[in-house]
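Technical appendix A lists one of the benchmark inputs used to test multi-chain prediction within the project. The record comprises two sequence entries:
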Amino acid sequence: MRRLYHHGLSPAARKVRVALAEKRLDYEAVIEETWIRNESFLAMNPEGEVPVLVEADGLTITDGWAICEYLEEVYPEPSLLGGPAAMRAEVRRLVAWFDRKFNREVTEPLVREKLLKRVISGGAPDSRQIRAGRANVHTHLRYISWLIDRRRWLAGDMLTYADITAACHLSLIDYAGDVPWEDHPQAKEWYALVKSRPSFRPLLTETISPIRPPRHYADLDF
Amino acid sequence: MRRLYHHGLSPAARKVRVALAEKRLDYEAVIEETWIRNESFLAMNPEGEVPVLVEADGLTITDGWAICEYLEEVYPEPSLLGGPAAMRAEVRRLVAWFDRKFNREVTEPLVREKLLKRVISGGAPDSRQIRAGRANVHTHLRYISWLIDRRRWLAGDMLTYADITAACHLSLIDYAGDVPWEDHPQAKEWYALVKSRPSFRPLLTETISPIRPPRHYADLDF
């Protein structure tokens, strides 16, 4: 059976789980805590990161975005990249925006300082990093609102990897209690739509031990 | 006519230039120095990064990797992603390796401290960062040698985006004079093959004012 190595703190692994569910592909989930050095996992992926997907025939795909493109090529229905090349380019641009810019400015500081350090008992959080992440998230929520003013979903009129990528990053920030939803009602409305997808539910009902998410984290009506 | 916004210090822009040349697509090159705030460029790409590709019909594609995937979809010959899905996944994995891991560990510290700071007169280089970049490059050259021991090119038996991505990052480190080629003869042999492609030549004959590259930078026999 197909296997996915993942952990709850990886936005890329979250994205692949949602993609597998949208494409109705079954898999066995294996939790790999990449902060603990595991030689057999490193042999499979020398970068030492999740997600890693192992197909039933043994084919091993590493790197979150490479897995997403692979799933789209091999299991094209339903499409998560959209139709013509121009739309696909827009989806990939937004995926890169969230995986690089949002990740650097928001996800990395907040997830490291507020979640990872507690999971690994890694010392006191750096309050400067937390403040920076909290300030930066506004720009991105404004950008989401700007896009949603013009389109039904982030990249056009259908749900794509752009929405899934953005929502997976935001779900982690929301787990940390740091998304100022009330200031960005349009972004909130879009996120409520993503949250209500059955593919997204499993992410919302899991806890990242020993941290409890805020009450609204799993609520569809938040 | 097709236009490409780029500058010499961007590994992603270098990659797109090589890809356009491999696919024999003409373009007008526009140098955009992204460290100078240019409102009309920011309107085109709010991330403020090169490369940006504008097709003759006005279609604008931003993000280096989104451009590469777009070129492969619209101008598939010659392919730079390879054949079956498993090989394409391997190409994308290696592209992500160099664009994320190599970039963070080697390109960013060395390009910023040794090249960018001189270009923008941005103060004294941080020697700790330079030492870190110089130490890290060995791991990656060993990884290239390991791959080339098993394959003709990095991802398989043909030149792909994996080779182009790796070589574009290395070309910048080589410009700074910081690739220890003599310690890694197999990686050097592979780089000599990339260097000899006509698509790569223009990168090697340009200078990034006011910095002169070391003598061997453009030599095919280095």
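Chain B has a mean pLDDT of 97. The radius of gyration of chain B is 17 Å. Comparable benchmark entries are summarised in Table A2.
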